[in-house]
Amino acid sequence: MGVWDHVVAGFLAVLQSDPVLGIPIVLLMVLFGFLLGITVGATPGLAGPMAMAISLPILISIFGYSADALLPVLGFLIGIMKGATIGGAVPAILFNTPGTPDAFMTTLDGYPMAQKGEARRALRIAHFSSASGDTFSDIVLVVCAPFLAILVERYLDLPEKTALLILSLAFIASVIGNSVGKGIISMGLGLLAAMIATGEDFYPRLTLNQPALAEGIPIAAAILGVLILGEVFKALEDIYRGEAQAKPPEQTKVQGGAKSKDLRRLIPTIGRSAIIGTCIGALPGVGSTLAATLGYTSAKRRHTNRPDANSPAFGEGAPEGIAATEAANSSVSGANLIPVLSLGIPGNAAAVFLILAMDSIGGFNPGPSVFQLGGGINEGALNPEMVMAFGIFTTMFIANGLNWTIGGIFMRWVGVMTRIPKARLLPIVLLLTLTAIYVQETSMVAVWITLFFGFLGYVMRRIGMSPLPFVIAFILGGNLEATARQAFAATGADPFFLFNSPIAFVFMALAIGVVAFSLRKPVP
Amino acid sequence: MDSYLPTNLGGVIVKNFLKRIAAASALSVVAATSTLADGHGWKPDGPIKMIIAFAAGGGADTQARLIADDIQTATGWEIIPEQITGKGGVNALVALKDMPADGSAIALVVTESLGYNAAAAKGSGIAPDGFTGLTTTAGFQMGVVAKADKGWTSFEDMIAAAKDGDLRFGTMSPKLSDLAFLLGEAHDVEFNIVQVRGGRAVMDGVQAGDMDLGFMAGIQRKGVASGDLVNLASALSAPLVQTPDAPKFSDLGVEFNADGYFVFVAPGGMDPAAREAITAAIVEATNSGKAAGMIGKAFGGAVNIQGEELDALMAADFKSAGALMEAAQ
Hints:
Chain A has helices at 3-15, 25-41, 48-63, 70-87, 89-95, 104-115, 119-155, 158-175, 180-195, 219-241, 260-282, 288-305, 319-330, 332-335, 337-343, 349-361, 384-413, 422-441, 444-462, 468-490, 502-520; strands at residues 19-20, 23-24. Chain A has 524 residues and is mostly helical. Chain A has one domain. Chain A has a two-stranded antiparallel sheet with strand order 1-2. In chain A, helix 2 runs parallel beside helix 4 (70-87), helix 2 crosses helix 17 and helix 7 (119-155) runs parallel beside helix 15 (337-343). Chain B is an alpha/beta fold. Chain B is built from twelve helices and ten strands.
């Protein structure tokens, strides 16, 4: 069976999924996820990953653990991921409050445009740029992920794979946040948590004889605790201290549409930003906020060097400013699946929850084996994992289609979300998270563990330490240990297995290099 | 491949949804049907917890969930599957040990969990006499398997290659690692033994070239049939069904073997009526319905060892574990 058979089978797996109300369930789930994503993105204080985190356990409790559950659940999560990036632009333009952190740059030109009475035009530009960037990024994903996976499988042996994981972790710890030291500590804590009760021995290590820990820390509990509860605790404290109370949004009229000439003029800007966003997205650990910043600054530099008579300067309502930001942050959401699907390495918080979904449901192990023809059984058989991968690609393009068709209309409706006060919203998030954990794990111990990790996440945020290296290291920890053990055994117990092959040596040198280089960089 | 395409999702959603939202009314329906369907004389007082010692989504997990479904349909008993994985089934057994022995808790493990793994996990307090064996469901067709394009057609070819250079031998449990070591020792070669998690990982490793050969417990069937994989030896006390000519471990100078089964167990001292009724329900499920089809495809058909024969088998496995560990020191 060739690649094409897998593409067709993946496509059919989506379209022939069980119909609910006459519509294939996967399509329906992508739609719901997408609408939820836009709504959540438009709500300041909520972000895509938060909604993904809370939905996942609930979805699993509805769909169960069978292989059939994978596509509807992933479709929903992908819908949220994509919806949230365009939703973030809405309050940024209308009320000068970014709905998601990566929409901050959109406020710089979007809000001035809205003040000039061009809010509708600004929204239309944001939507067009966002949808274009998203589509571009998905195409790159579909083309690149299989080839990267095949290259990895062909050229990387166990020691090289170990070195690649170490390099990824070093890169993530160095580039996330503004302190390499804190990044590495965060990563180290994640690896430590991943070591509890795992390993090859029959004795559950590091559990302090606590039977509750004998199966290890429930992965959802640790991740939701650090990422979601930590954020909620910190935001609640900010509200208590009266720090983060956003100024009441000013109402603006939504009027003045964009002309197609307008959009055509922006295409080069969008193209450049989409390329920047896609490249950033493909690197593990660098999120959409940096992509947006880079996209914006590069467009600004270009605009300043070659001023356009028809367009105001950046910061005063330049359509290019919105286009550059939105194209860049949206084009991250396809490319970030390149390391997920080809290497099994999550690059940002959204990817963390996609991997978590794949891990929890089972039947799909992201990594190089996904794109093996024959599925390891024989050349005549379909590889179910590859079918699933193409099913995931199909859901991404469906989300894209929704983005182009109904995304723009729905965007204009959700401006109202900005007016929900955080003091009401956060307790709901807290309750939903704890409920979601209990639904999935059905044990109070998991709830206590979640609260513990929530406190850890809170402390990390208070001392300016990014929790993302913790989470990514926690997910990759088991994999890193297993690969390292296997590499050590396969090389006949060679203690220098990480340095004996040229490729592994280069990876290790890069890992040390990236940390050393980041240390030299002055703290901004 | 069909099983990976969503075919019955609507049903699954509705069923799970109902289960959670309207458990009470669903139960009353179940209770009404169960009086008709149950012919064994014994009935559980409430739901039966079925602990699954295998990762969600794999072959063993699917088997357990299908059996649960089949029993539920046939008898009306409510069965709640729950994953407790890790430590080769020892975690599941530790959790099961202290549950009530009234038929409200059972677990699917492998015989190795109560044999080698229980013996190796000192301090966990796990031994066969602390459990009631119900029945095995299927056996392993454990072979020593390599990719056909290695060019080895027999076990001797592989040994000749191993003498020229170190070969990587993939295994999926400490017991199998010991067996791989003894196999090498018996033929004066040293394998680099790479222990991974689960039979699927061994096959992926062998296919991707990360390992040269490895133990596979039935997953190799399609590959061997199509000529992509070769069964070099049977790790069992009997020949492999698919490749009867491959030498057995006893022919190859190894006095131990990898005979093993999936087995349902319950806490020790179980009420004999409950034991009989649950065993009968499992045996029926493994020989008819969805579970039987899956077991036939994935594990080569149901094997139901039960009663005293099963007790003897588990006791013998546990006893020989010490000897194997000593031999592999």
